[in-house]
Amino acid sequence: MLGFNLLDILINVPITLIALTGHELAHAWVSTKLGDPTPRLNGRLTLNPLAHLDLVGTLLMIFTGFGWAKPVMVDPRYYKNQKRGMALTAAAGPLANLVMAFLSLLIYSVIFVISQKFAPGMTGAVSAAGTIFGALAVRNLCFMVFNIIPIPPLDGSKVLGLFLPDRTYYAMLRYERYSMILIAVLSLTGFFSGIIGTGVNAFMNGIMRLLNVFVGLVL
To answer: Does any domain span residue 212?
Structure first.
C-alpha cells in the first residue's frame, strides 16, 4: 500500500537509512575483519548512508517496508575459507538489524519505565517514543527477515551455501543477477508480504517477551 502521508514519510525515511546503513556496514566490517580490503577501498566502511543507497531497493523499503541497499563488494579470495567467509559476511547484515531492533525496543522500554516512575503524566511523549522506536524496530526486522530469505543474492542464500555442495553453491551464484529481477517484481506484487509479516511478528513477540520481563522486574 502506498497511502503514506507526510508524517509517515518523515518517520520512514530516517529509520530506513538507519536500518540499511547498519546492515551494510556490518557486511563491510566483517569482510574487512576476515582480511578483505575491498569494502574499505570502495568506501563502504562508513556510517554515511549515501554510500550504501540503492535507488530501487531504498524506495521499496520506504514504501513497502522491505527492500535492499547497494551490495557491499567483497573478494572471497582473501578469506581463509571462502564459503564460510561469505556466510559470516552475509549473516552480519541481518544480525545487525536484529541487534538494532532489540536496542530500539530496549530504549523505548527504558523510557517507559522512567516515565512510570518519575513522570507518569508524560503520556504523549512516551506514546511518541513508542511510535518512533517501534517503527525503527519493525523496519529493522523487515529488512532482516527479507534478507534471510534463501534466494540469491539475498543474504540467506550465502548462509545456506555454507551447507550446500560446492557445485550447487557456485551454480546458484551464477544466477544472482537474474534472481534480483525476480525479487524486485515479486516485491512490487506483494508476494513477500506474508513471509515478512510472519517473520517480523515472530521476532517482535520474542523480543517483547524478553523486555516485558525486564519491565516487570524494574517496576
So the answer is: yes
Cell of 198: 510472519
For residues 91 and 86, what is the distance between their CA atoms, to the nearest angstrom? 8
Domain for residue 1, yes or no?
no
**Residue tagged active-site, from 15, 16, 22, 24:** 24
Which residue range is the domain that position 17 belongs to? 6-218
Active-site residue, 176 included: no
**Cα dist from 18 to 142, 160, 205, whole Å:** 13, 26, 22
Would 11 be classed as within a structural domain?
A: yes
* Number of C-beta neighbours around residue 82 at 10 A: 15
Which among 15, 86, 57 is positioned nearest to 146, based on CA atoms? 57
Look at residue 29 and tell me if it is in a domain: yes
Give the chain's domain count. 1
pTM higher than 0.85: yes
Quote the cell numbers at residue 168.
550447487
Rg for the chain, CA atoms, rounded: 19
Digitized pLDDT (tens) for each residue of the chain, 219 residues in all: 444 567 777 888 899 899 999 999 999 999 999 999 999 999 999 999 999 988 887 777 777 666 678 889 999 999 999 999 999 999 999 999 999 999 999 999 998 888 888 877 778 888 888 889 999 999 999 999 999 999 888 999 999 999 989 888 888 877 777 787 888 788 778 888 889 999 999 999 999 999 988 777 776
